[in-house]
Amino acid sequence: MADYFKGNTEYFPGIKKISYEGPKSDNPLAFKYYDPEKTVGGKKMKDHLRFAVAYWHSFCADGSDPFGSATHVHPWTADASSPMEAAEHKLDAAFEFFTKLGAEYYCFHDRDMAPEGSSPAESEKNLMAIVAKAKERQKATGVNLLWGTANMFNHPRFMNGAATNPEFKVVALAASQIKTAIDATIELGGEGYTFWGGREGYMSLLNTDLKREKDHLAMILTMARDYARGRGFKGMFYIEPKPMEPSKHQYDFDVETVAGFLRHYGLDKDFRMNIEANHAELAGHDFFHELETAASMGLFGSVDANRGDPMNGWDTDQFPTSYTETALAMYAILRAGGFTTGGLNFDAKIRRNSVDPADLFEAHIGGMDAFAAGLIAAQRMIDDGKLSGFVKQRYASFDSGEGAKFEKGGMSLQELAALGTVYGNAGITSGKQERLENIVNQYLLNL
Ligand code: XLS
Ligand code: NI
Ligand code: NI
């Protein structure tokens, strides 16, 4: 990766390129486990992990919450005389950050990058002007776009949904925004395009026609797919499941629900899952569950890396810190074949009271180290084979004989039932959960 983009104001003065110093380092601005060029399981860490920075949390969010105003004063906005100038300064700050951190990818919503105009045409003009500048900076630095998306939840027109809005005019407005965001993604060579349907759901069933809304959502996804493929887009489309917030109920509830939806509407060839740890938790699952579920259906795609707070029930979007969680996540990801078009996007934000410019770096460094440590542990789990060996042996009765015949669909219920009557007692076999949990902890030591 080239040095950070020069010729602009330095927005993170005093912070140099972050380097790997190893687990014993006490430098808060150094990696302890993430050593980009180090090989794990025959592949460089950076190619396994494909870290991306989320434009919205890192350069747009200002620390405000429902109870308090902004606490993060961004110098890139403060020193601009117009919204478009601010957008360009923000872009400079972003590329300075990506390159100093050593993240090779980023993700954005259309409205993170450029301000909404007074008409769809003006919004498109604004976005494409910034996209042209982003393209130059990508070329100069080697940083690439992991995925783009459209913000279809912020504007009041989307209060009743975007693709699932009961008014056709709003659906058309949503389409114009998606089309432009796809154009922007293609222009930047994006490796994916994400749909997160924050308001594609309902607040009350009393005013909602569920069937029509879901049909409309599928229609828009199909049209978006066809448009992008028609323009030669070879990247992946992602659906990012989340059960609720801001809607009471969101149609993209969890991986299993989205898989059913994609298959029902014939979209499962072009769409994969973008799995967010905090969303898994909101759906009553753990991150590992969602990853394994997607992998089991060949629908694993990408990750929004963060964590929630198990003591409360909303999307706190904190930076990941639990090595156990990242080790299990990487264990699922590696076994699913690793990332191809996807990556680890830090859909995470620093806390309202984290007001030092260095806090944004330390947050990402911690998250990157957590996934690097998780990767090392996961590779150990795979190399050592104890866990997979146990699982294989647990299902061994389906590998040959009558079990294999059953699994291949070569048996009727009568035949199977007849076997059941002669087998007598079976099934009192330990699942060995505690042993397996203890083994996982052993892999986490001495990273
Ligand atoms: C919100 C989502 C959002 C998506 C992109 O909860 O995580 O940030 O990742 O629209
Ligand atoms: Ni997300
Ligand atoms: Ni989220």
UniProtKB/TrEMBL annotation:
Look up the EC number in the record and give it. 5.3.1.5
Cross-referenced InterPro entries:
Xyl_isomerase-like_sf (IPR036237), Xylose_isom_bac (IPR013452), Xylose_isomerase (IPR001998)
> Can you supply a Gene Ontology BP term from the record?
D-xylose metabolic process
Q: Which GO terms describe its molecular function?
A: magnesium ion binding; xylose isomerase activity
Where is this protein primarily located?
Answer: cytoplasm
> Where is Mg(2+) 1 annotated to bind?
E240, E276, D304, D347
Which top-level enzyme class is recorded in the Swiss-Prot or TrEMBL entry?
Answer: isomerase
Per the entry, the cofactor note is: Binds 2 magnesium ions per subunit.
Q: Which family does it belong to?
A: Belongs to the xylose isomerase family.
Name-wise, this protein is Xylose isomerase
Source taxonomy: Bacteria, Pseudomonadati, Spirochaetota, Spirochaetia, Spirochaetales
Gene designation:
xylA
